[in-house]
Amino acid sequence: MSKPVITIDMGGTMIKIGIIKENILISSVSINADSGNGLRVRLPHIEKAVKEALARQQLSFKDMAGLGIASPGIVDSHQKKILSIDKKFGDAPDINLEEWCWQAFGLPFTIENDARAALLGEWKYGRAKDYDNVVLMSLGTGVGTAAVVEGNLLKGKHFTAGILGGHFVINYKGTICNCGNKGCVETEASTWKLPSIAGENKAYSESKLKSLPSVDYKAVFQLAKEGDLAAAEIREQSLQAWAACAISLIHAYDPEMLLLTGGIMGSGSSIVPYIRNQTEKHAWTPWGNVKVETAVFPDSAALYGMAYLVSNINK
Protein backbone atom coordinates (compact mmCIF):
# COMPACT_ATOMS: atom_id res chain seq x y z
CA MET A 1 0.00 0.00 0.00
CA SER A 2 1.49 3.36 -1.06
CA LYS A 3 1.79 6.23 1.39
CA PRO A 4 -0.35 9.37 0.96
CA VAL A 5 1.14 12.45 -0.71
CA ILE A 6 0.88 16.18 0.04
CA THR A 7 0.32 18.10 -3.19
CA ILE A 8 0.30 21.85 -3.83
CA ASP A 9 -0.85 23.71 -6.96
CA MET A 10 0.47 27.29 -6.99
CA GLY A 11 -2.16 29.15 -8.97
CA GLY A 12 -1.88 32.86 -9.59
CA THR A 13 -5.12 33.55 -7.70
CA MET A 14 -5.43 30.61 -5.30
CA ILE A 15 -2.98 28.06 -3.92
CA LYS A 16 -4.59 24.61 -3.71
CA ILE A 17 -3.36 22.08 -1.18
CA GLY A 18 -4.41 18.45 -1.32
CA ILE A 19 -3.76 15.09 0.28
CA ILE A 20 -3.96 12.17 -2.12
CA LYS A 21 -4.14 8.61 -0.85
CA GLU A 22 -4.22 5.63 -3.21
CA ASN A 23 -5.05 7.88 -6.17
CA ILE A 24 -7.98 9.56 -4.37
CA LEU A 25 -8.04 13.21 -3.29
CA ILE A 26 -9.12 12.77 0.33
CA SER A 27 -8.70 16.38 1.44
CA SER A 28 -8.24 19.75 -0.25
CA VAL A 29 -8.17 23.38 0.78
CA SER A 30 -7.39 26.64 -1.01
CA ILE A 31 -5.71 29.77 0.30
CA ASN A 32 -5.22 33.16 -1.34
CA ALA A 33 -2.12 33.23 -3.52
CA ASP A 34 -1.39 36.96 -3.23
CA SER A 35 1.12 36.09 -5.94
CA GLY A 36 2.02 39.69 -6.72
CA ASN A 37 3.80 39.92 -3.37
CA GLY A 38 5.96 36.86 -3.97
CA LEU A 39 6.12 33.32 -2.68
CA ARG A 40 8.36 33.73 0.35
CA VAL A 41 5.69 35.53 2.38
CA ARG A 42 3.15 32.80 1.54
CA LEU A 43 5.28 29.87 2.70
CA PRO A 44 4.26 30.16 6.40
CA HIS A 45 0.60 30.20 5.31
CA ILE A 46 1.14 27.14 3.11
CA GLU A 47 2.90 25.36 5.98
CA LYS A 48 0.00 26.14 8.34
CA ALA A 49 -2.61 24.95 5.82
CA VAL A 50 -0.71 21.70 5.19
CA LYS A 51 -0.45 20.97 8.92
CA GLU A 52 -4.16 21.68 9.43
CA ALA A 53 -5.10 19.44 6.47
CA LEU A 54 -3.05 16.57 7.90
CA ALA A 55 -4.56 17.06 11.36
CA ARG A 56 -8.09 16.85 9.94
CA GLN A 57 -7.20 13.49 8.39
CA GLN A 58 -5.43 12.36 11.57
CA LEU A 59 -2.19 11.96 9.63
CA SER A 60 1.36 12.92 10.56
CA PHE A 61 4.40 13.73 8.43
CA LYS A 62 5.84 10.25 8.99
CA ASP A 63 2.73 8.81 7.27
CA MET A 64 3.48 10.74 4.05
CA ALA A 65 5.51 9.72 0.99
CA GLY A 66 6.55 13.29 0.23
CA LEU A 67 5.40 16.69 -0.96
CA GLY A 68 5.00 17.87 -4.55
CA ILE A 69 4.50 21.39 -5.89
CA ALA A 70 3.01 22.25 -9.29
CA SER A 71 4.33 25.72 -10.14
CA PRO A 72 3.85 28.17 -12.98
CA GLY A 73 6.97 29.05 -14.92
CA ILE A 74 9.98 27.11 -16.15
CA VAL A 75 10.87 24.41 -13.65
CA ASP A 76 14.05 22.32 -13.44
CA SER A 77 12.57 19.12 -12.07
CA HIS A 78 16.03 17.57 -11.68
CA GLN A 79 17.57 20.32 -9.55
CA LYS A 80 14.11 20.95 -8.05
CA LYS A 81 14.18 24.67 -8.78
CA ILE A 82 11.98 27.29 -10.41
CA LEU A 83 14.25 28.77 -13.09
CA SER A 84 12.04 31.54 -14.43
CA ILE A 85 8.53 32.75 -13.65
CA ASP A 86 6.33 35.36 -15.31
CA LYS A 87 5.14 38.01 -12.81
CA LYS A 88 3.38 35.64 -10.37
CA PHE A 89 5.53 34.66 -7.34
CA GLY A 90 8.40 36.68 -8.79
CA ASP A 91 10.84 35.80 -5.99
CA ALA A 92 10.38 32.03 -6.41
CA PRO A 93 13.63 31.40 -8.37
CA ASP A 94 15.60 32.70 -5.37
CA ILE A 95 13.97 30.29 -2.88
CA ASN A 96 15.38 26.85 -2.03
CA LEU A 97 12.05 25.06 -1.86
CA GLU A 98 13.60 21.66 -1.25
CA GLU A 99 15.30 23.05 1.85
CA TRP A 100 12.06 24.70 2.98
CA CYS A 101 10.16 21.43 2.56
CA TRP A 102 12.73 19.49 4.58
CA GLN A 103 12.83 22.07 7.38
CA ALA A 104 9.05 22.49 7.55
CA PHE A 105 7.94 18.88 7.10
CA GLY A 106 10.98 16.59 6.96
CA LEU A 107 9.75 15.19 3.65
CA PRO A 108 11.17 14.43 0.19
CA PHE A 109 10.36 17.19 -2.30
CA THR A 110 9.30 17.16 -5.96
CA ILE A 111 8.40 20.07 -8.26
CA GLU A 112 7.11 20.36 -11.83
CA ASN A 113 5.52 22.94 -14.13
CA ASP A 114 1.81 23.24 -13.37
CA ALA A 115 0.47 22.57 -16.88
CA ARG A 116 2.79 19.57 -17.21
CA ALA A 117 1.55 18.30 -13.83
CA ALA A 118 -2.08 18.78 -14.88
CA LEU A 119 -1.55 16.84 -18.09
CA LEU A 120 0.20 14.09 -16.15
CA GLY A 121 -2.79 13.85 -13.78
CA GLU A 122 -5.21 13.52 -16.69
CA TRP A 123 -2.92 11.11 -18.55
CA LYS A 124 -2.50 8.75 -15.61
CA TYR A 125 -5.95 8.98 -13.98
CA GLY A 126 -8.33 11.02 -16.12
CA ARG A 127 -9.56 11.67 -19.63
CA ALA A 128 -6.32 10.81 -21.42
CA LYS A 129 -5.37 7.57 -19.68
CA ASP A 130 -5.88 5.45 -22.81
CA TYR A 131 -3.73 7.67 -25.04
CA ASP A 132 0.00 8.11 -25.57
CA ASN A 133 -0.14 11.33 -27.62
CA VAL A 134 -1.97 14.16 -25.89
CA VAL A 135 -1.73 17.94 -25.58
CA LEU A 136 -3.29 20.08 -22.88
CA MET A 137 -4.36 23.72 -23.04
CA SER A 138 -5.21 25.41 -19.76
CA LEU A 139 -7.20 28.64 -20.02
CA GLY A 140 -6.87 30.74 -16.89
CA THR A 141 -4.83 33.70 -15.68
CA GLY A 142 -2.58 32.88 -18.62
CA VAL A 143 -2.62 30.10 -21.20
CA GLY A 144 -0.69 27.02 -20.10
CA THR A 145 0.15 24.04 -22.30
CA ALA A 146 1.88 20.66 -22.07
CA ALA A 147 2.42 17.62 -24.28
CA VAL A 148 2.80 13.86 -24.05
CA VAL A 149 4.38 12.43 -27.22
CA GLU A 150 4.66 8.68 -27.79
CA GLY A 151 4.16 7.98 -24.11
CA ASN A 152 6.69 10.55 -22.87
CA LEU A 153 5.92 13.74 -20.96
CA LEU A 154 7.87 16.37 -22.90
CA LYS A 155 10.40 18.42 -20.94
CA GLY A 156 13.21 19.28 -23.35
CA LYS A 157 16.87 20.19 -22.91
CA HIS A 158 16.06 23.34 -20.91
CA PHE A 159 12.67 22.27 -19.47
CA THR A 160 10.59 24.43 -21.85
CA ALA A 161 9.32 21.78 -24.30
CA GLY A 162 5.55 21.81 -24.61
CA ILE A 163 4.80 24.44 -21.96
CA LEU A 164 5.09 27.71 -23.89
CA GLY A 165 2.03 27.39 -26.13
CA GLY A 166 0.57 30.50 -24.52
CA HIS A 167 3.50 32.34 -26.11
CA PHE A 168 2.96 31.12 -29.65
CA VAL A 169 2.87 34.29 -31.76
CA ILE A 170 -0.54 34.55 -33.42
CA ASN A 171 -0.48 38.30 -34.18
CA TYR A 172 2.98 39.55 -35.08
CA LYS A 173 1.60 43.11 -35.16
CA GLY A 174 0.10 42.71 -31.70
CA THR A 175 0.94 44.16 -28.30
CA ILE A 176 3.90 43.35 -26.08
CA CYS A 177 3.45 40.31 -23.83
CA ASN A 178 4.70 39.85 -20.26
CA CYS A 179 7.34 37.54 -21.74
CA GLY A 180 8.75 40.38 -23.88
CA ASN A 181 7.55 39.00 -27.19
CA LYS A 182 4.83 40.55 -29.35
CA GLY A 183 1.39 39.15 -30.22
CA CYS A 184 1.42 36.01 -28.06
CA VAL A 185 -1.77 34.00 -27.50
CA GLU A 186 -1.93 35.45 -23.98
CA THR A 187 -1.91 39.06 -25.25
CA GLU A 188 -4.92 38.25 -27.45
CA ALA A 189 -6.95 36.26 -24.89
CA SER A 190 -6.15 35.64 -21.22
CA THR A 191 -7.49 36.75 -17.87
CA TRP A 192 -4.47 38.91 -17.06
CA LYS A 193 -4.86 40.81 -20.33
CA LEU A 194 -8.68 40.95 -20.34
CA PRO A 195 -9.14 44.36 -18.63
CA SER A 196 -7.03 46.12 -21.27
CA ILE A 197 -8.63 44.10 -24.10
CA ALA A 198 -12.04 45.24 -22.84
CA GLY A 199 -10.96 48.85 -22.32
CA GLU A 200 -9.68 49.09 -25.89
CA ASN A 201 -12.93 47.78 -27.40
CA LYS A 202 -14.83 50.53 -29.25
CA ALA A 203 -18.16 49.45 -27.73
CA TYR A 204 -16.82 49.26 -24.16
CA SER A 205 -18.17 52.65 -23.06
CA GLU A 206 -21.73 51.44 -23.77
CA SER A 207 -21.15 47.94 -22.38
CA LYS A 208 -22.34 46.52 -19.07
CA LEU A 209 -18.75 45.34 -18.66
CA LYS A 210 -17.76 48.91 -17.81
CA SER A 211 -19.98 48.94 -14.69
CA LEU A 212 -18.42 45.78 -13.22
CA PRO A 213 -15.82 46.05 -10.42
CA SER A 214 -13.59 43.73 -12.47
CA VAL A 215 -13.91 42.16 -15.91
CA ASP A 216 -13.65 38.37 -16.10
CA TYR A 217 -14.50 35.77 -18.72
CA LYS A 218 -17.59 34.56 -16.87
CA ALA A 219 -19.08 38.04 -17.33
CA VAL A 220 -17.88 38.26 -20.94
CA PHE A 221 -19.57 35.00 -21.95
CA GLN A 222 -22.76 35.79 -20.02
CA LEU A 223 -23.14 39.30 -21.40
CA ALA A 224 -22.30 38.10 -24.91
CA LYS A 225 -25.29 35.74 -24.68
CA GLU A 226 -27.43 38.71 -23.67
CA GLY A 227 -26.41 40.63 -26.78
CA ASP A 228 -23.81 42.99 -25.31
CA LEU A 229 -21.76 44.10 -28.33
CA ALA A 230 -18.39 44.58 -26.61
CA ALA A 231 -18.71 41.26 -24.76
CA ALA A 232 -19.63 39.47 -28.00
CA GLU A 233 -16.62 40.94 -29.82
CA ILE A 234 -14.25 40.03 -26.97
CA ARG A 235 -15.69 36.51 -26.85
CA GLU A 236 -15.13 36.08 -30.59
CA GLN A 237 -11.56 37.42 -30.43
CA SER A 238 -10.77 35.12 -27.52
CA LEU A 239 -12.27 32.04 -29.15
CA GLN A 240 -10.27 32.72 -32.31
CA ALA A 241 -7.06 33.13 -30.31
CA TRP A 242 -7.57 29.91 -28.36
CA ALA A 243 -8.45 28.03 -31.55
CA ALA A 244 -5.25 29.33 -33.19
CA CYS A 245 -3.29 28.07 -30.19
CA ALA A 246 -5.04 24.70 -30.36
CA ILE A 247 -4.23 24.31 -34.07
CA SER A 248 -0.59 25.24 -33.47
CA LEU A 249 -0.38 22.65 -30.67
CA ILE A 250 -1.82 20.02 -33.00
CA HIS A 251 0.64 20.91 -35.76
CA ALA A 252 3.57 20.93 -33.32
CA TYR A 253 2.91 17.69 -31.41
CA ASP A 254 0.63 15.49 -33.56
CA PRO A 255 -1.69 14.39 -30.72
CA GLU A 256 -4.67 12.08 -30.70
CA MET A 257 -6.41 14.27 -28.11
CA LEU A 258 -6.47 17.93 -27.08
CA LEU A 259 -7.55 18.43 -23.46
CA LEU A 260 -9.05 21.74 -22.33
CA THR A 261 -8.94 22.82 -18.70
CA GLY A 262 -8.54 25.90 -16.49
CA GLY A 263 -10.81 28.40 -14.76
CA ILE A 264 -12.20 29.89 -17.98
CA MET A 265 -13.63 26.48 -18.86
CA GLY A 266 -16.60 27.36 -16.68
CA SER A 267 -17.80 28.61 -20.09
CA GLY A 268 -16.76 25.35 -21.73
CA SER A 269 -20.17 24.79 -23.34
CA SER A 270 -19.29 27.68 -25.67
CA ILE A 271 -15.54 27.08 -25.91
CA VAL A 272 -15.33 23.34 -26.66
CA PRO A 273 -17.66 23.24 -29.71
CA TYR A 274 -15.93 26.30 -31.20
CA ILE A 275 -12.41 24.89 -30.83
CA ARG A 276 -13.54 21.46 -32.02
CA ASN A 277 -15.10 23.02 -35.12
CA GLN A 278 -12.03 25.14 -35.87
CA THR A 279 -9.53 22.32 -35.42
CA GLU A 280 -11.60 20.04 -37.64
CA LYS A 281 -11.73 22.75 -40.31
CA HIS A 282 -8.20 24.10 -40.18
CA ALA A 283 -5.74 21.65 -38.58
CA TRP A 284 -3.75 19.71 -41.18
CA THR A 285 -4.54 16.17 -40.03
CA PRO A 286 -5.20 13.99 -43.08
CA TRP A 287 -5.49 10.91 -40.86
CA GLY A 288 -8.65 12.27 -39.15
CA ASN A 289 -9.70 14.66 -36.38
CA VAL A 290 -8.04 15.25 -33.03
CA LYS A 291 -10.44 14.58 -30.17
CA VAL A 292 -11.17 17.83 -28.29
CA GLU A 293 -12.27 17.06 -24.73
CA THR A 294 -12.58 18.69 -21.34
CA ALA A 295 -10.49 17.46 -18.42
CA VAL A 296 -11.99 15.05 -15.88
CA PHE A 297 -10.29 16.92 -13.03
CA PRO A 298 -10.58 20.62 -13.98
CA ASP A 299 -9.66 21.82 -10.49
CA SER A 300 -7.34 19.08 -9.28
CA ALA A 301 -5.45 17.50 -12.20
CA ALA A 302 -2.16 19.13 -11.16
CA LEU A 303 -2.57 17.72 -7.65
CA TYR A 304 -3.02 14.22 -9.09
CA GLY A 305 -0.04 14.71 -11.39
CA MET A 306 2.22 15.72 -8.52
CA ALA A 307 1.01 12.76 -6.44
CA TYR A 308 2.01 10.46 -9.29
CA LEU A 309 5.47 12.03 -9.50
CA VAL A 310 6.10 11.92 -5.75
CA SER A 311 4.94 8.31 -5.47
CA ASN A 312 7.07 7.16 -8.39
CA ILE A 313 10.21 9.24 -7.79
CA ASN A 314 10.41 8.54 -4.06
CA LYS A 315 9.71 4.81 -4.05
Essential attributes:
Nucleotidyltransferase, domain 5, five-stranded mixed sheet, 9 helices, 315 residues, Glucokinase, alpha/beta, 2 domains
What is the chains' assembly state?
single chain
- In total, the number of domains comes to 2
- Provide the low-confidence segments as ranges: none
Count the helices. How many? 9
Helicity range of the residues? Answer: 25-40%
User: For the residues shown, what is the average pLDDT?
Assistant: 96
* CATH architecture descriptor text of the largest domain: 2-Layer Sandwich
Bulk shape = globular
Portion in beta strands: 15-25%
Series of H and E elements? EEEHEEEHEHEEEHHHHEHEH
Which CATH C-level class of the largest domain is it? Alpha Beta
Count of distinct strands:
12
What is the name of the CATH topology of the largest domain?
A: Nucleotidyltransferase, domain 5
Strand order of the largest sheet: 3-2-1-4-7
Give the terminus-to-terminus CA distance.
Answer: 12 Å
- The fourth-level CATH homologous superfamily of the largest domain is ATPase, nucleotide binding domain
What would your notes on this structure say?
- By secondary structure, this protein is α/β, with parallel strands linked by helices.
- It folds into 2 domains: 5-118 and 299-313, Nucleotidyltransferase, domain 5, CATH 3.30.420.40; 129-294, Nucleotidyltransferase, domain 5 (2-Layer Sandwich), CATH 3.30.420.
- It contains 9 helices and 12 strands.
- The strands form 3 sheets. It has a 5-stranded mixed β-sheet with strand order 3-2-1-4-7, with helices on both faces.
- A hairpin with a 4-residue loop joins strand 5 (74-76) and strand 6 (81-84).
- The longest helix is centred in the last third of the chain and has 25 residues, at 229-253.
- It starts with a strand and ends with a helix.
